[in-house]
Amino acid sequence: MKASEQDGTYPRPILRRERWHSLDGLWEFGYDDAREGERDTWFSEPAAGAFDREITVPYPPEAPASGIGETAAHPVVWYRRRVPHEVLAAGDGDRALVHFGAVDHRAKVWLDGRLVAEHVGGQTPFTADVTDALRPGADEHVLVVRAEDDPADLAQPRGKQDWQDRPHAVWYERTTGIWQTVWAETVTAWHIRDLAWIPDPKRGVTAEITLAARPATPVSVEIVLRHDGEVLAESTTAVRTPRARVDLVVPALRNGIDREDLLWSPERPTLIDARVTVRDTATSEVLDTVDSYVGLRSADVGRGAFLLNDRPYQVRSVLNQGYRPDTLIANSGTAELRREVEMIKAMGFNAVRVHQKAEDPRFLYWADHLGLLVWGETGAAYEYGTEAVELLTREWLDIVRRDRSHPSVVTWVPVNESWGCSDIANDPAQQAYTVALANLTRALDPTRPVMSNEGWEHTDSDILGVHDYSSDVGLLTRRYGDAAGFEALLASPGPAGRALSLDARQTERYRAGEVPLMVTEFGGLSVGAGKDEFSYTRTGSDTQYAALLDDVFGVLHRSPIVAGFCYTQFMDTAQETNGLLHADGSPKLPLETIRRIVTGNATVPEEKPESPALADEEQ
Fold first, then answer.
1. Which residues is 147 bridged to in the sheet?
2. Structural contact between residues 480 and 427, judged by C-beta atoms closer than 8 angstroms
3. 262 within 8 A of 254, measured Cβ to Cβ
4. Percent of the chain at pLDDT above 70?
5. Concatenated DSSP letters for 466-478?
6. Residues ≥6 apart with Cβ < 8 Å to 467
7. CA 350, CA 308: separation in Å to the nearest integer?
8. Among 57, 156, 243, 434, which is least packed by CB within 10 angstroms?
9. Are β-strands 315-320 and 351-354 bridged in parallel, bridged antiparallel, or unpaired?
10. Is the confidence at residue 3, as pLDDT, over 60?
11. How confident is the model at residue 92 (pLDDT cuts 50, 70, 90)?
């Protein structure tokens, strides 16, 4: 099967191996409110009743799908599972690995009573090499995980997870512990630990390969790129260090006409299959083989526009909170993620802003394969200080490293609406923090636009993103109907009472056309919302809702200065009822009506989701 034709079940789409074992399913589970588990060695000889429940991984205990559904705060939780020896079997020189997609927030992992991994960061993956902990001759092994997640710690990146007892306004139920898939695989000592692709649509692609260890003797790294069965490029490189950077020239890109057939875009999401093989140079023994894929595209800004493959591209985006009724921040599997991408496209959007979380990589897999631009984001902390800066910076760089090879990801958003730096307008330290985050992002990935502080109080952003939840069509027209109107808005306190930019250079770059203007949050309309529900504007009927929705979209469609927009939001989430879909995934208006409003009657290919709702999922 081609790399670009997989079913999206493998948890790490950019670096896949044929043999792997899911460890999702029923685990033993226990709360540790007294924080006595480590002292009492729950990882090796737990006290009676320590693991007194069962939980379905990878659903957090707060989620109904977990089988527990307990939303009260429990800062420390424990998991235990017995794993058959054949799942972790490691031959002579091999390594047995257990991968965790995400565990919120601090994790420790033991195997057979031996500590094998520690990790901090609730959104990012980590791996436990359990080889040296395996008990010889054992038929099974015991895997134990301790997760600590303090709901009152505002320095901890938490995104939309509420710090209060009950969800309020735009914040939702918290997530504790394992919330992305757990899986195992056996590899050689010199396996590929990390793989990244840097596309250059005019020339080819660069591969960055990280081996798990420095080779004892030189190894060769073989890379083959194929499209529709045809070899586009191949190379063999002698590698003596843990890291290698390989440039592959794709001759077909020299022909400007043929190049169009190979470029990735939402309208034509062409993917190049890639296989990377590590081979012992002396014996020709294969040490590792991984499959991957590459999207040849560029993402940039200029000429007052967002540029996709060097051409102006009107961004029609929707905000997606990534919370689901039954699984909360987690998801029910690749089928659900695929249907979300299909529904977003069917509604007429060509982009999505996954808000305040780093979504499951399988969502990005479907965005890559089905054609949907993604703005990559992270969960915010809610106070500023040394600990908050350190935690978010570390986690953010891990997110960029994890997701930078996905062609769908076209913009990075490390900070939103001054969350975690609320005094940025007057605090040089907080300004320096957001500038540093933007520049660190560019240092790790110089190929995409970066937002220093999305929505307002920009300090060093490549896009001038504005959040404006006014539903007054006349006011919106005055603000975005022409350049003079927006200049007046730039000079004002801004729609939310905060200056749009703190960077005079950015303002001048906007005026010079180097930085495009986008209304990156707007709308927030609901219909028939109850008194305990949250939205920015309530309408009294479906007719009124459709008319106002059409009007606010219409202002931005007609604007000669707005290069793109992001509507709030995709789906009703908890008490926030401003979605275009109900919480069960059914559209609030006929899908064709939503599509007409979103596209502004633009001629775009019609997209049809597999099903009209997102509620009926399969693992």
1. 77, 107
2. no
3. no
4. 96
5. EEE----HHHHHH
6. 417, 454, 455, 456, 495, 496, 519, 520, 521, 522
7. 12
8. 243
9. parallel
10. no
11. confident
